[in-house]
Amino acid sequence: MIRVLPAVLLLLLPMPPTLALGGPARPETGPSGATSHAYFGLGCFWSAEIAFEAIPGVRSVTSGYTGGTERHPTYEQVSSGTTGHFEAVDVAFDPAKISYAKLLDTFWRSIDPTQASGQFCDHGRHYRSAIFVRDSLQRREVLASKRALEDSGGLAGPIVTLIVPAGTFWPAEEYHQDFWKKQPEHYRRYRVGCGRDRRLAQVWGDRAAKPVVH
Fold first, then answer.
1. What span, in angstroms and rounded, lies between the C-alpha atoms of 105 and 5?
2. pLDDT tens digits for 79-110?
3. What CATH superfamily classification does 36-207 receive?
4. Run of H or E residues at 103
5. pLDDT 10s digits, 115-169
């Protein structure tokens, strides 16, 4: 993955209490057959996909870009660090089977929330860990989750994960989707070489998330 210079520190932006934010219209249905969406940045989106795939209640995980101003950004543009986008995933889930709070728990245990330069070996703002809140309810749950993690005293440093209002989510190029399935050897070499699991074990111990590939 391409690296650029790191960004700095936590950004927490206020949002109107009732404004639902997000990208292209993805209507959320009622309790029966519902589909909700959660946007997360966990560094490299190849690994972000794996963090949520195979979790009961998760319908799909899509790699993409969000948080910037360029329309239909490409991987090359985002990797250059000039568009303001993050590598991220859109987690589509059934709220009757899995809660947003449980997705947040998986998110935290799949990252190093104390790393401000990116995630693991991937450095640059577009690799920063981030939660993109789509409405006021998600925002409240995110803040409660972050506060509980801080109060637990289990981390060696302050949480610098960004918490920002969601914007348009642009799906990444097809070759990035389920990269770990398409290029398993390439992905495994990347994950081991990047030290992701080694660092997660240092941060979380046996509480580190155990994705489908680790």
1. 29
2. 999 999 999 999 999 999 999 999 999 999 99
3. Peptide methionine sulphoxide reductase MsrA (3.30.1060.10)
4. helix 100-108
5. 999 999 999 999 999 999 999 999 999 999 999 999 999 899 999 999 999 999 9
Predicted TM-score of the model (pTM): 0.84
Classify residue 6 by its DSSP letter.
-
Q: Is 44 a catalytic residue?
A: yes
Eight-class DSSP state of 3: -
Residues 45-67 have pLDDT tens digits of 999 999 999 999 999 999 999 99
Q: What gap in Å lies between CA 40 and CA 163, rounded to an integer?
A: 10
Q: What sign for the dihedral angle of Cα 197, 198, 203, 207?
A: positive
**What is the DSSP secondary structure assignment for residue 118, as one 8-state letter?**
E
**SS3 label, residue 123:** strand
The residue to which tokens 């959320």 are assigned: 28
Task: Give the whole-angstrom CA distance, residue 15 versus residue 63.
Answer: 25
Please tell me which residue in 1, 15, 44, 51 is annotated as part of the active site: 44
In whole angstroms, give the CA distance from residue 97 to residue 68: 32
The structural domains of the chain, with segments of one domain joined by +, span 36-207
